[in-house]
From TrEMBL:
The keyword Metal-binding applies. Residues 2-103 form the Rieske domain. InterPro entries: Rieske_2Fe-2S, Rieske_2Fe-2S_sf. Keywords: 2Fe-2S, Iron, Iron-sulfur, Metal-binding. This is Rieske (2Fe-2S) protein.
Length: 106
């Protein structure tokens, strides 16, 4: 298992981007849980964010692609609006352990 960050590094609710072992990832913290995804839109393969650590919509309830406004469910990564409707972000297994976010898969 690999430590991604301290839980306190991610605002609640909020999101944070990471460059981790050549991969671009982001983590969303919401409702006491953390969800980690590859930072790659399922339809174009580009990064979702324009601004650093900004992966959520205006009220922090959904993940949003900054380029197209596509919206994804935080817990599942499923796109519910936008050009990749019905497709899903690639989740990276993770858990919270002793105040840290650790990856359970790479
Ligand atoms: S790159 Fe796919 S919705 Fe923006």
């Amino acid at each position: 298992m690999l430590t991604l960050c301290s839980l306190n590094d991610i605002p609640e609710p909020g999101s944070k981007g990471f460059k981790f072992q050549d991969k671009s990832l982001f983590a969303v913290r919401a409702r006491g849980e953390v969800f980690v995804y590859q930072n790659s839109c399922p339809h174009l393969g580009i990064e979702l964010n324009w601004q650093e650590d900004q992966f959520l919509d205006y009220d922090d309830s959904l993940i949003q692609c900054a380029t197209h406004g596509a919206l994804f469910i935080i817990e599942s990564g499923e796109c519910i609006a936008g050009p990749c409707h019905g497709k899903t972000l690639i989740k990276v297994g993770s858990k919270i352990e002793n105040g840290y976010v650790v990856l359970t898969e790479e």
